[in-house]
Amino acid sequence: xxxxxxxxxxxxxxxxxxxxxxxxxxxxxxxxxxxxxxxxxxxxxxxxxxxxxxxxxxxxxxxxxxxxxxxxxxxxxxxxxxxxxxxxxxxxxxxxxxxxxxxxxxxxxxxxxxxxxxxxxxxxxxxxxxxxxxxxxxx
Length: 139
Prior knowledge:
5-stranded antiparallel β-sheet, single chain, alpha+beta, about 30% strand
């Protein structure tokens, strides 16, 4: 049973193979009545490229951007969990071999450089894994 992630958006650009959809990403408290007095409310516009062969879409159409929730879990794992574990593990191992905490910290952080370089080599595969599709929004 896979759950869907849905965002309402508007088509801003169309080319032969892709449709660009603009969505407004809101923090959980951005709809709060006290958001003007709080600095936690946050809204950000994101542009998502969606591969489609459907020619019925037009610029300005309201659409639903749909993805699988497993994509979100994988993204969090690759972007936050694995790097955190790499830093933590390397920090503990380095502390066994040196008493210099600053050096251990710098080397532990530098472990992220090869991690993200290796991750960037899989950019094409990751783009294929993180695919959205669109549907016309029913009003």
